[in-house]
Structure formats: C-alpha cells, structure tokens
Amino acid sequence: MRKYRIRKDESCISCLRCTKECSFGAITAGENRTLIFHHEKCVDCQRCVTFCPAEALYITEDENRFRSNSVFRKDDIEEILIQAETGGVLLSSMGTSGSNVPIYFDKLLLNASQVTNPSIDPLREPMETAVFIGQRPERIQRDEIGRIVDNLPPHLELKTPIMFSAMSYGAISLNVHKALAFAAKELGTYWNTGEGGLHESLYPYKENTIVQVASGRFGVHETYLNTAAAIEIKIGQGAKPGIGGHLTGKKIIGDVSKTRMVPEGLDAISPAPHHDIYSIEDLAQLVMSIKEVTHYRKPVIVKVAAVHNIAPIASGIARSGADIISIDGYRGGTGAAPKRIRDNVGIPIELAIASVDQRLREERIRDRVSIIASGGIRNSSDAVKAIALGADAVSIGTAALCALGCHICAACHTGRCAWGLATQEPELTERLDPEKGAEKLVNLVNAWTHEIKEIMGGMGINSIEALRGNRMALRGVNLNVKELEILGIRYAGE
Amino acid sequence: MKKEGEVRISSGCAISGIFCRDGKRISGEAIKKSIAVMHNRSNGLGGGFAAYGIYPQYKDYFALHIFYDSQNAREDTERFLDKRFDIINLSKIPVRQTQNISDAPLIWRYFITPLPHLLQDSQLDENEYTAKATIRINNSIEGAYVVSCGKNMGVFKAVGYPEDVADFYRIEDYEGYSWTAHGRYPTNTPGWWAGSHPFSLLDLTVVHNGEISSYDANRRAVEMYGYSCNLLTDTEVITYILDYLTRKQGLSMKECSEVIAAPFWTTISIKSEEEKNRLSYLRKMFSSFLITGPFSILVGFNGGMMALNDRLKLRSLVAAEKGETVYFSSEEAAIRVIEDNPDRIWAPRGGEAVIVGLNERGKRI
Amino acid sequence: MKVIDIRKEGMDEVRKHENENLTITGCLGERYIGCGMRNGTIHVEGTPGNALGSYLDGGTIFVDGNAQDAAADTMNAGLLAIKGSAGDALAYGMRGGRVYVLGDTGYRTGVHMKAYKDNKSILVIGGRTGSFLGEYLAGGIIIVLGLGDEKKDITGYFCGNGMYAGTIYLRTDKVPLNLSEKLIKRNVEEDEKDRILRPIISDFAAAFSIPAKRCLEGSFIAIEADKSKSYSQLYAAV
C-alpha cells in the first residue's frame, strides 16, 4: 500500500547515501548510480532527507487518493484492504493517531503574577525543581526526648520533575538504554528499563535506574531488583491497556536473549495480566514481596494505564503498600500494539490525573503516595500543566526518543528503525552514539527545566511542590462544563 | 458582585502585634495607635483585632464571638449551641456608633462549655468538639458566622479602617497580654464583615500581609484533613494549616515555620548533619504545606505569638523589644509610635520565625 | 534653618520648603520625604516612612534614626545618609548619587543599581545586609563594611545573584553564603583599595564623623559577574 511518494530534484549528486541510509528498502541503487524509488516501502522516517548532502530528496504524502467520502476516510479503506488481504490484526506503534485525538493540555492556560504578588526571575532568584517521590506516613513520630524520628520510607530524589519512561531492551537498542542511563545520571533523574531486563554493562547506573517487573518477568532476578533505585510493577501502559506484549523471536538474539533470559529465537510473550494478580489484594502481595526481597530499601512503583475507572484503581494501589503510582495516558507510545487498541482504549492523561488526584484527596490519602504522569507529554508546558493538575512528576518516552533522532514514523514494530533506536540490527543500532545521544537528552531536559522555572517564576512560585495540584494556576478554554468539573479548573476569565 | 468565598480576592495589608511576656494586661488603645500609623496600607475595606487574656473571669470557657445577619439566624444558632453546650453567659458585644462603620451585623458573645455527657459520647477532646460545632454553624446556619471561639480570647473585626473598627468595638475597654491587628487592602469590595481579618480557629488567630502563590496547592492539601476553606483567603488556609500541624500532627510552632517557610534546599545543605536531616524530613513529609509567594504573618495563640516572613522575605516585618514587651509590625513607625525607645529593634530574616511566650510570671497570672 | 514638626504641620509644609534647608522633626512613618528633591538639605528626626528620598535628584537628606522600606528608590543624584538602619529594598534601581547607611540594611539592598557615563551609583553600608544584596546589579559600587560584626557573615544568602555589571566590595575574608557559580570572588589588592575604596569610604566616614581608618581596616573581597557565563547562552531561537 503506497502512502508516501519519494522524489528528488536536479541537485542530486548520485552519491547513493540515501540508499545506505534507508533501512526499509524504499530507495535502492540501479545501474549507473541511478536511484530506484520503491514508494510502497517508504514509512516517511525522514532519514534519507536528513542525510542527503545535496538536500535533493522530498517525501510527500501520496497525492493519489481514494474518492473522498465523509465517513470512510483514506485510512479506513486502506486498512480494510490490508485486512481483507491478510486476515490479520492491524499492528502499529508509537502513540495514538488520527485527527480527533483529544489533547487537553492545549486547552489549558497558565497564570502569571501581576501587581498583587511578585513574579520571580528564575535566573537570579532561587527556583526549586527538586522533587522527592515516595510514600509518606500519616503522622510524625518523636523519640523519648522529643526529637522527630525520620519515619519516611525510601524516596526517589529527582533534581527536575521529568524522568524517562519505561522502554525495554528488545523494543529499543542497548545504545538507547545507554544514552538514557548516562543522561539520567547526569541530570539527577531516573530512567526505566522496561520489561526486558537490565544489561550488565549498565549495572553501574543503578542509582538512576528504575527496573521494571512486568507480567512476562523477563530478566527478573534478585540481583536485577537490587540493582536499581526503585522497582516498577507494570500492570499496563497507555498505548495498550489490557494487552500483553509479544517480542518476536527474531529480535531475541545475542545480548537481548541473555538479558531477558529467553533462549535465542524464541518469542518473548508478556501475558495480558500478571497471572499472580487477579485482584487488588494480590497486587499488595506482589508489592510486599518485592519490598521483602529488596529489604524495604527501595520504593515500589505501580504503573497502570489510564482507563475509565482509574480513580478507584489508583485508590486501591495507594492502599496496596505501593509508594508511587505511575499513570500512563491514552496518548502514550509503544513499540508495538494492535492499532484498534492503541487508538480506542483508555482516557487522556489530563483527565486521569485530575480525577485521581481529586479522588485520593477525598479519601485523604493523596499525601501518602506520589503520582507520575505520562502519555503524550510533548514539552515543558505540558509537564507544568500535568503537575498543576496534581502529578508529582512526569515521565517522557516519545519525546526522549525524538531527542535521539526519532521522527515518529511509527514503524517501530517492523524492527527496521532507520534511526537505530527501535531495532536490534547491528548495522542500524550503531547509528546512535550513546554518548552523543545522552548529550541530546541532557540538553532537552535542561531546556525544559529552565522553561519550567520561567513559568513557575511568572506565577510567583519558587518551589515545585507549591505547583503540585495548584489548579488555580490553570484556566480552561474551549471546554464544556463537565470537562471543567473533572479537571477541577475554572474557565478563562472567571 | 460575588462575596468572599465565592471568588478569591487578593489583598495587601498592614499588621501589628504586641505581646507582654510578663502577662501584663494592656488596653487596646496601644494596638489601635500602632495600626493607625499604617493607614496608607489599608483602604478601609477591612480591619480587625485579636486579643488574648481579655476574659479572665471566664478563662475556662470557650468564648464565641458571632455575627448574625438576622434574629432568625441568632435563634437557630442559640438552639444549636444549647443542645451541645452549657451556655454560661451570653450578651451583645458592646459597640459604639462610628461614622465610618456601617452595615453592622448583630454581634453576640457567648461563654460556653461542652455538655459533659455529649463530649464523652463524641470521643473527641473539648477543642475538637468545639471546633467541629463552630465549623458546622458556619457551614450550615444561613446568616450566622462564628468569628472566634477560643478560650480567654476574642476577635473583633469589621469592614472599615482598623482605627475605626477599634472605636466601633470600644477596643480600649479590653485588657489583654497579647494583641494583633490587621488593616486590609483587598483588590475587590465585597463589604462582608466575616471576610476581614484576623481569621481564627479555637485560640489560633492569624493576621497576614501578602498574597501567596501556593494557595490552591495548600488549600487542596489542608481540605484533605477535614477543613473547608469557605472564604478562599490566604489567612484562612494558613490558619487551618497551622491548626492541622500543631493540633493534629503535634508540631511546635517553630517546626510549623520550618514547614510553611521551609529553607531552600541549598540553605539546608549547608546545615549540620542533624539539622539537615530534621529540616529535610519536615520538607519532604509536609511538602504540600510549603507556602510560596509573599507573606508576613502574626500568629496569636494562648500564651504566645509567632511572627514569620516568607522565605524570600517579600513582605516587610519589624520586631522590637522593650523590657518584657515585644512588638511586631509591618513598619517601624508603627512600633515607634507606641514605644519610642525600644531596647532592641530588628528585622527578622525571611523564614526565621520569632516566637514569644509568657514567662514564668506571665504564666501564673 | 526652617524646622517643621511633621506630625503637626504635615507633609504639605515639607513639600513647600523642599528645596531649602530644613529640619523635619517627629517623623512616624510619613512616606515620600524628599521625593524627587533637586537641591537643598533635609535633616530628618524620628522614623521616616517608606520611599524616603525616592527619585532623589540632588541635595542631601540626613536621617538621624532608622529608615523604613524602599528608601532611595530609583534615586538619580545627591546624598542620602542614614545614621541608623534601613529596611528592605533600599536603593532599588538607583541610577546615580550616594547612599550611606551607618547601620544594617534589610533584604534586597541595592537591587539593580546602575551606572551610565558620569552617573555612578554608590552605596555604602556600615553594618550588615539581608539576603539578595545587589541582586541583578547592573553597575555602580556597593560596599559593605560589617563594622563590629567582623566575625559574622555580613551579607545573608544569595548575595549578588544575577548581577551582570558593577562591583560589590565586602570588608571580610569570608566568601558569602551560597554564592552563585555565575559570580567571581576576588581579593582586593592594596592599590585598588587605595584607588577606589579609600576615597568613597573616607567620604562615608566623614558623613557620620567616624574615623575612616577603622572602616578601611582589614581585607576586602570583591564580587563581580563572570562575563563568560552570560545568560544569553540559555536561549535557542525557534
């Protein structure tokens, strides 16, 4: 099925660079250094365009189109044709797509100080972005002479309220893991292994590593759990709530096999649920067993997808002994997910955070746990809005991959990522230099942190905790009464 | 126009306080004189006073000052109180016709004590029992508003300049060992008496200058613990936070100051190991109660007073001592006008609370 | 010399005689004394109110006691000498002239003081200052002597944060608490002390009739912006 069309202009110098860069076989060399375009193979990843030294290449949407129909759009017809041909479930990757994806962040506006209190210049005055996340006890304790006893369970300390989302080794390359780990250490934040285990070469980064325990339990062993700052139990992810994972045997090679502890060539299947968790009290059991094996020294995160009942689910998690709840919204990304699931299941992160934060407050347990928001955080103002709605911190996956080169062509599931990220092919993975990648990630997060400080300073807030749940900092536009009610905010001008 | 509580109104202000450590009871004349010097800092839309030690003959009873919009509200409230408390004494609070004070509600005073068997059945202590009852009056009886409800103390407030409010309430007729005063400069004109300051709960009173930027984070946090911020003012939320931290969590006033005006992490990092741990603990444990943005507050409570600035010291605050008497004010002149030769006069640093209490002699009185 | 009892005669009387030589007695918080004054001398007794000598454009104001907040705000020229202490936000945005305070000053002293051609702001403090001294400093000279408090930190936290020109001189050998990494601290050599500090400090001492020698005793450090760490590096155009 042809979606894009490749063209070149007269400035082409026939260097054939594009044929080497294209990992999808969409551009090949013909006789006498001519280029042959296989338009149907192009995924619009922009790799060839970026690397063409003569700037001679163009990728455009194919202008040949179906007769327009206001109900059956182009994608609808194409997908029917594919399924009619193959009988298969449509597979996709990255986050939700389509023209009607609700993005509430774009309908929220931020406040600033004028006259009645001062704005603060973050370049000169102290501006605190450090966040401590973890559990808090209900009451203080004192020793026999009245001194306060430190009864706080272990916390994660983030120098900035931005961390990296879980992306597994297998779905992405070891070089991406390295870049994330180096950057997390440099930034004073955390990266997350995802469910594919932790490569031994990254053990030295344990202070900045969150290891994940998912239903497949790949690469999970005592050393793994203790080579981390925190452990995350993954129940679900925003892109595919209720769905397990399937890493094809083709990718289970070499170190991926070793790290996942899955024999080479064998598929790695993550069941849809954890089969030791069929109810909330079972979750408590898994949380506590992980705490037991890590000697109660590490916080336990429970990651769930934002689904309809997210508020009571979060309440249940808060009471399970978990220290941190990570909520991944409907727009979150993935390495591979059935398209219908990705585009139709779950709710946007903004509504999820707002309702969870409110619910936990009504139950008087919001201070007991911390909340991480993810699923479509694109920039620093999204992060600020998520925090003002009630999150303690945010985590970014797609944005981090973009910093490493990803152009969101959503071909991760092909395993042929031309940017060398979502692939295990050695000739592709070597395209990412982990050191340089880390530098890009550090730049990105530092720039966002500066912007967060600017925004906070404008509001006269000099510490991030005073922004958390501070919904007066937000006003809505183009929202109906119900949406305002769920978001717990007022309309602009009110 | 929406009244206070339906909309959040920001305001600038003047504050002043006098505390006699030896328990000497002084008339309200001095505090009136002090706050009047800062006339420029208010705009006639709110003034008030809190006084401690003014009801020695009733010091074991809760003193309720209540505003009523109507006789009906009064009757409903008195029925409500009568069911739950022994009413030892009730009277109108004496006022003086004052030109600049108008639209006065009915203002009554009660000395009450919880009915012993009901108190026992409730399994609450008498403070919580009384606090709950007054919050219920404010929330459920239309036209009734409890202005203060502590023991041996009271709040006097109105819409007007503070010096006029003092005349209206005949503040010079009261004698207390501790006084705070407030002149308000709201950016709106609700003209609602209850919206003036001080704000109080039990014996805790707060006067405040500034507008905090953490308001909604603080409000939503404290509302988790059973408080309901009906007025949407900074003073209200600060009062509830302090009540929660002291009465429910058992923190000292100093520890409270280290929560709401917590030192910056960079400042904490250069402290001694023990102090570092203690301050980090308080910040992490009570992070929802960090108050940012400008504020200077005077907190009155039985037997003591705390003066505190925000950690950046974005509002002015001056302190002075003369013998056993301590003075606080937004401006030095407001202290000089009542004590022209203090032993010591200084500006407390941002986030560094000055806490004074009755000395041994004062406690005996 | 004209004497005005401000409590009795009021600010109007002060305004009428502003550019003459006068003494104001009994001050208790009266604001805007000497505001925008061009010449003349005012001697102030009592505690003048906020915004004393704001926009001062020449002449001299001498205060016997303490000043409150926002004194010498946006001052342009002349001399404001305060024998006692001053409150917060002293000399904010000052553009020229001299401000001398014998006692302590509050938070945010000398924020965004400037210098342009012959206009050079000079601020000397005999005692100690609160936090954020010389924040955003854009030019001119601030000197803090810490007289009598030689063992203590004389400037509070965040001294000179965000300053990009001008110099803060401190009579101490202690580096200010949590000094920003965008600032450079250097020791002041004898010749700089003689050339720059001695004339200013001698004038300061003369204003209060105290010995200049004591004010110049011991070592001075200077705080200046690190020009290699400018804020423009922070931005990326879209």
Could you provide a short overview of the structure?
The complex is a heterotrimer of chains A (494), B (365) and C (238). Chain B is α+β, with helices and mostly antiparallel strands and 365 residues long. Chain B has twelve helices and 18 strands.
What can you see in these coordinates?
The complex is a heterotrimer of chains A (494), B (365) and C (238). With 494 residues, chain A is an alpha/beta fold. Chain A has two domains: 4-88, Alpha-Beta Plaits, CATH 3.30.70; 131-491, Aldolase class I (TIM Barrel, Alpha-Beta Barrel), CATH 3.20.20. Chain A has 15 helices and 23 strands. Chain A is globular. Chain A starts with a strand and ends with a strand. The model of chain A has no long low-confidence stretch (mean pLDDT 94). Chain B is an alpha+beta fold. Chain B has a domain at 11-54 and 152-316 and 351-364: Aminohydrolase, N-terminal nucleophile (Ntn) domain (Glutamine Phosphoribosylpyrophosphate, subunit 1, domain 1, 4-Layer Sandwich). Helices cover 31% and strands 28% of the residues of chain B. In chain B, the strands form four sheets. A seven-stranded antiparallel beta sheet of chain B has the order 8-3-10-1-16-15-17. A five-stranded antiparallel beta sheet of chain B has the order 11-12-13-14-18, covered by helices on one side. In chain B, strand 13 and strand 14 (304-309) form a beta hairpin. In chain B, helix 6 (215-223) packs across helix 7 (234-248). With 238 residues, chain C is α/β, with parallel strands linked by helices. Chain C has a single domain, classed as 3 Solenoid (Pectate Lyase C-like). Chain C is 14% helix and 29% strand. Chain C has helices at residues 6-16, 190-207, 212-216; strands spanning 2-5, 21-28, 41-47, 57-63, 77-82, 97-101, 115-116, 119-125, 138-144, 165-170, 183-187, 221-225. In chain C, strands 1, 2, 3, 4, 5, 6, 7, 8, 9, 10, 11 and 12 form a twelve-stranded mixed beta sheet that branches. Chain C is globular, with a radius of gyration of 18 Å. The interface between A and B is large, with 38 and 42 residues.
